[in-house]
Amino acid sequence: MKNNKNTDVRKKKTGMAPYMGRLYLIFAVFAFAVSIIGWKLSDLQVVNNERLQGEGDKRQVRYETVAAHRGIILDRNGRPLAVSTPMMAIWANPKEMLGKNLKPDEDVPVIDWHGLGRQLGIKPEDVRQKVHSYSSKGFIYLRRQMTPAKAAAVLDLDVPGVYSREESKRYYPAGEVTTHLVGFTNLDEKGQEGLELAYDEWLDGKEGERRIIKDRRNRLVKEAETISGAEPGKELMLSIDLRLQYLAYRELKQAVQQHGARSGSLVMVDVKTGEILALVNSPSFNPNNRKSIKPETLRNRAVTDIFEPGSVIKPFTIAAALESGRYTPGTVIETSPGVMRVGRNYVRDVRNYGRIDLTTVLTKSSNVGVSRIALDLGPGSLLEMFERIGLGATTGSGIPGEQTGGLPLMRERWSKIETATLAFGYGLSVTPLQLAQAYTVLAADGIYRPLTPLKRDVVPQGVRVMSSSVVDQVTEMTTRVVTQGTGRRAKIPSYSVAGKTGTVKKVGQQGYLDNRYVASFAGFAPVKDPRIVTVVILDDVGGKNYYGGVVAAPVFSKVTGGALRILGVKPDEVAQGSQRNIVAKNIVAKNNVTVPNGKG
Amino acid sequence: MVSLQNIFRRFSDFRPTWGQPLKNDAELDFWLLGATLAVLSLGLVMVASASTEIGSTPLYYAIRQAIYVAAGLIAMIVVMTIELQEWQRFSTVSLLVSIALLVIVLFMGREINGSVRWINLGFFNLQASEVAKLGMVVYIAAYLVRRRDEVRSQWWGFIKPMLVLGGAAALLLAEPDFGAVVVLLVAVLGMIFLAGVPLMQYLVLMVVCVVGVIGILLTQAYRIERLKTYLDPWADQFGSGYQLTQSLIAFGKGEWLGQGLGNSIQKLFYLPEAHTDFVLAVLAEELGLVGSLVLLVMLMFISLRALSIGHLAERAGQFFAAYVAYGISFLIGGQVVVNIGVNIGLLPTKGLTLPFVSYGGSSMVMNCLAIGLLLRIDYERRCLMKQKQRREASND
Fold first, then answer.
1. Going by C-beta distance under 8 Å and a sequence separation of 6 or more, which residues neighbour residue A178?
2. Which residue of A24, A25, A29, A37 is the best one to mutate when testing the B interface, meaning the one whose CB has the most B CBs within 10 A?
3. Which of B199, B251, B319, B339 to mutate to test the interface with A (most CBs of A within 10 A)?
4. Which of A215, A385, A471, B70 is most exposed, with minimal Cβ within 10 Å?
5. Residue B78 near residue B7, CB atoms below 8 Å
6. pLDDT above 90 as % of chain B
7. Residue B295, exposed/middle/buried by CB under 10 A (0-12, 13-18, 19+)?
8. Contact yes or no for A213 and B333 at CB 8 A
9. Is position A133 annotated as part of the catalytic site?
10. Residue A445: its pLDDT value, please?
11. Do A45 and B254 touch (CB under 8 A)?
12. What is the pLDDT of residues A42-85, one digit of tens each?
């Protein structure tokens, strides 16, 4: 460098020394290029990279939902009633499968329709047609609710544009036994019926979201991060006891079949807490296989169907009478000649009971007797009593579809026949659950507690709606119904039972039908310290045996008796229990042949 | 002609120097060799990383690139055994071979992506322009030495080689390979500049070339399209701007230290030509600004080292060697600048590889061969200097 002072071309045309000035210029150009590139690189990579990263994310990053399991539904002892099992849905991107979003230089993928159809369990031609008919869509389900193993077999085919998605399937271990109460969900695990619907929000899991990175062919590169974790749904513990539920369902179903009833319902309530221990209907259906469900089996009749209660309401008519102070259990009432003219109508007993006391009015279920009482008391005190025990209003159980039933409105003018029929349970409508509510008041010493299908941690205080002395007297009288009246078949070995039968003519289009009946029995046990209320309703009983005492009472006996033993309730009739039972059976057998006695 | 025997003999002559360079009186430029080997290694790794998904097997391109690197190193060693004067003697042959290849490719070439650039040799696709670029440099260097006075004093002196260059450029444009034209033009203009063409004449020549290049740009519709894309790639980001925007995204994702080797997302079918023309984008995404700057510095070091080798040779009076070194410096430097410029959106898109890094056999072998030439040039100069020193020592 030192020896080179000749940068001018013209001065040194043949000189040996290089052109240093030009070399420096070249060097400067190099340096310029490098610094421009370096600046631009820094700008792109570090300084102003947000936009580029954003553009990249638009193309690479996808957000995927993370399935959250729906909460499990349990019975009071923790036995599962509804559980979610992981399943896979296979979905397709028709655009990708048919090569609609490719650049011109990319090849249309070859699809193995045959293999795909075979693994999916669908006719290959059907799969192909479905994909083609949705060719402009980016997402269609090919098959849902596949087991993970079967879905894996589909994915193993590596068909372009075919993907899987986690989902879950609701399974009901107790099937038809609990389905009316528990309900069911749809494919997307949203509650559709029953408590699945009522507590959908509680049971529903919150889906999570995660960020994933996909390559241009839509394949997963990596799971980047979880945006929000999946929150599984909360579990729901019901008040029902699956053992009692099974027992109740079995007995009810058998009775429905045996007596040719169109349907039946049974509600069992824990007297101490107001919890529903069992709630079944027959016919039922299997929620795990819904292909062959008949619409008429779907209804939860115990809460959705209303009927005229008939004689099962009489204990409350009697209670109103006792409450008035004008009657005692010993008050004698004239029922001769077994028929009474009320206005232009007649109220009839099965036969002429003559002069009988109040207790006998109930045990014999004398319509004439209660009609006289009602006409004496007036409709107001009856309606007021019915309202207090929860009729004409929902029980507040929260079971979807629950009907309120109906009491006639209190008004100035009542015809006598309306007042009279109210006394023996016509002219008002109730659901089986409401009836259970009413009997629970009686069993719980006159305390009203709302019923619930959920397990209770805290038992509500309740409201007293009947005095203890009235309750004691009515209980004593209804015990007699079972020991010597129409409800003898409701007896339970070792336990005392109180209850009332009911047999109601069904209402048709032209008034009451002659040979269609609703048979019922409502009662509780053990009498001294009531634990269980059970209401049994058999709708549209055909055949010769249609009386509540013949058709419904035995169901009550078997179910309540079984329940008391399962729950370990102390028997209150230890010594004579079994013996008396045999005697009772004999009496019932005789009666059965000779006199199918007393309406209700 | 250089017979095989001659090459072998020269190789055995050379061996002692190669074996014990430090003990001998002459030595190799280990800075250049080291930088080249470093860039080759990094390039091989990046090609392997960028091509894992696109080949039939993950290592499909990596294995081939490794073979090309090996071939390049062999070419480098062979070239180092050949005396430089042989190249000067056969400079006309190298011009004829270059022109012949450029003509052959037009008739027998293989078309890839709309350009006819490759001659199928059965086992290997030869890219004619890669050979022609170096061939032209050797020819021009020899011409500048032969007609040095003429070049420095008369218009005609440098118009003649420019006509030859124009012919080669026309053939390249017929392929079309505009990028090669630009790089060749840069190299030859640079050589002529350093050879001492009068400034006025040189400026006129520059103007002519720039006007010519702009004229070519505007005559062809697809080049205008590319130009538009270059001005705003985001305007048509799923059409003509697709490649550039994907490349820019890769740079943006890189940040300081990158996503980590092998972690590029853009190489997963988002960025086309990720292992060839746009390998730098993948490197930038995986190794970050640090990685891309290191590679830029190493490549520019190689180019500047070639310039300095040329400068020293010129001072030592070895003009042919000096001009060849200058030409190689500009070929490599120009191609690096254009390729990176395209990658980062500073220049319109054209199909140019990144020397020593991008996948491709012709480019790899010819660039290694050029490094071999540089090493030979430097070796010969050092020998000359030692001789001089010894002579001066003995004279004293």
1. A75, A81, A172, A240, A242, A245
2. A37
3. B251
4. B70
5. yes
6. 29
7. buried
8. no
9. no
10. 92
11. yes
12. 988 888 888 888 888 888 787 877 777 888 999 999 999 999 88
Q: What is residue A173's predicted lDDT score, i.e. its pLDDT?
A: 92
Instruction: State residue B6's pLDDT score.
Output: 58
Taking alpha carbons only, the member of A512, A331, A324, A362 closest to residue A426 is: A512
Written as six digits, the tokens of A581 are: 């039972």
A374 in Cβ contact with A382 (< 8 Å)? yes
Q: A31 CB near a chain B CB, below 8 Å?
A: no
pLDDT at A585 (0 to 100): 46
Candidate CATH numbers 3.40.50.2000, 3.90.1310.10, 1.10.760.10, 3.40.50.1000; the one for domain A63-237: 3.90.1310.10
Mean pLDDT of B114-136: 84
Q: What angle do CA A38, A42, A43 make, to 5 degrees?
A: 115
With a cut of 70, say whether residue B62 has pLDDT above it.
yes
Q: What is the pLDDT of residues A110-155, one digit of tens each?
A: 788 888 888 888 888 888 888 888 888 888 898 888 888 888 888 8
pLDDT at A105: 60
Query: Do B289 and A52 count as a contact with CB atoms less than 8 A apart?
Result: no
The residue extents of the domains of chain A are 63-237, 242-288+300-591
CATH of A242-288+300-591 given 2.40.50.100, 3.40.710.10, 3.40.50.620, 1.10.3210.10? 3.40.710.10
Instruction: Give the predicted TM-score (pTM) of the model.
Output: 0.62
Our CA angle for A131, A135, A139, nearest 5°, is: 75
Q: Which residues contact A589 (CB under 8 A, 6 or more apart)?
A: none
Q: Which residues in chain B are closer than 8 Å to A60, comparing Cβ atoms?
A: 265, 270
DSSP string, B349-377: ----PPTTTSS-HHHHHHHHHHHHHHHHH
Edge-to-edge strands, sheet with B125-127:
B109-112, B115-120, B125-127
Averaged confidence pLDDT in chain A: 84
Phi, psi for residue A411 in degrees, rounded to 5: -145, 175
The rounded radius of gyration (Å) of the Cα atoms in chain A is 39
Spatial separation of the C-alpha atoms in residues B68 and B130, rounded to whole Å: 14
A13-27, A374-388, B155-169, range with the lowest pLDDT:
A13-27
